[in-house]
Amino acid sequence: MTDPAPPDSVVTWTAEGPAFVVRLANPPANQLGQPLLGGLSAALGAFETSAARILLICSGLDGFFAAGADIKLMAGAGRAALRAYGDSMRAAFDHIAALDRPSIAAIEGRALGGGLELALACTMRIGSASARLGLPEAKLGLIPGAGGTQRLPRLVGRGRALDMMLTAREVPADEALAIGLLDRVTEPGGALKQALELAGQFGAMSRPALAAVLRCVDDAAELPLAEGMAREADRVTDLLDSPDGQEGLAAFVAKRPASFA
Question: Dihedrals φ, ψ of 95, to 5°?
Fold first, then answer.
């Protein structure tokens, strides 16, 4: 059973089939202030104790997935407070990136600054045709500080990442799809529906196999080829010897659908 969100939280969550759907609703634009970050951390804790196969993050507001950091908070804070605020944002996003289950960001409207960094921490990003994505921190004399300078180049390449960050421009959905920043584009209003459909496909898969895919692909970005290949070999051997692996092989031989735990 999924633990309920606090009644006054700007972050709520529900179980919808195999998906654990987290909705952000911090008017007017889902600024990533401490209430939202605290709610997101609580949601991630509830997800980890749930039986859900997929984490899905979306917005409960029109026009914004998330607009970025809380600028008013930052403008009035000292160095120690700024570092603590940045650490809390990075911790939440790193938590998402380290999950052993896939995560999907369903993006309607703008995902800017920390909002895009939140989406970058997810396994996949589905956006509607109205989506606009950007890292505009250079306009403020800053740089992305919650993973943007590290995750974006790994996803779209150095040149495209520099283009986005140095110009501080908003990338439309069709371009984001072409460069690999978005994985799917839907009609306006359709991002959540398609994310739930994708979650249904993931939900039929073996959870240990999904976790192994996530870790192996992370290894490909971080390790020398020989070391990544060695880890892949270890993981596939473990899976072949696991209940899910044995079930998948038996189902294939018997020409029936696999039934994973």
Answer: -60, -45
Q: Does 137 participate in catalysis according to the annotation?
A: yes
Rounded (5°) CA angle 55-34-103: 10
- 112's tokens: 């800017």
Q: Give me the residues paired with residue 106 across strands.
A: 126
The structural domains of the chain, with segments of one domain joined by +, span: 11-203, 207-254
Question: What top-level class would CATH report for the domain 207-254?
Answer: mainly alpha
Residue 117 designated active-site = yes
Residues 3-37 pLDDT 10s: 676 766 899 999 999 999 999 999 999 999 999 99
The active-site residue, picked from 111, 113, 137, 199, is: 137
Q: What CATH class is the domain 11-203?
A: alpha beta
63 catalytically annotated: no
Buried b (16+ CB within 10 A) or exposed e, 207-241: bbbbbbebebeebeeeeeeeebeebbeebeeebee
pTM of the predicted structure, to 2 decimals: 0.93
Catalytic residue among 114, 115, 147, 148: 114
pLDDT(131) > 60: yes
Active-site pick, 46, 117, 119, 199: 117
Please indicate whether residue 86 is annotated as part of the active site: no
